[in-house]
Amino acid sequence: MYYLSLLTYFLSFVIFLFCMYLLTKDDFVILRKNITMEQIFNISFIAFFVAIVFSRIFFVVFTFDEKFLNPLVFLVFPYFPGFSVVGAVFGGLAFFVFKSFKSKMPMRHMLDLYCLSIIPGLIFGLFIYIVFIQKLIVSFAILIPIFFLGLFIFLTLFFYRNKFKEGSTGFLFLACFSVILLLSKLIKTKNLGLLIGNEWIILVLIFLLSAYFFIRQEKIDIKIKNFVLRR
Question: What is the pLDDT of residues 132-142, one digit of tens each?
Answer without folding.
Answer: 767 766 567 78
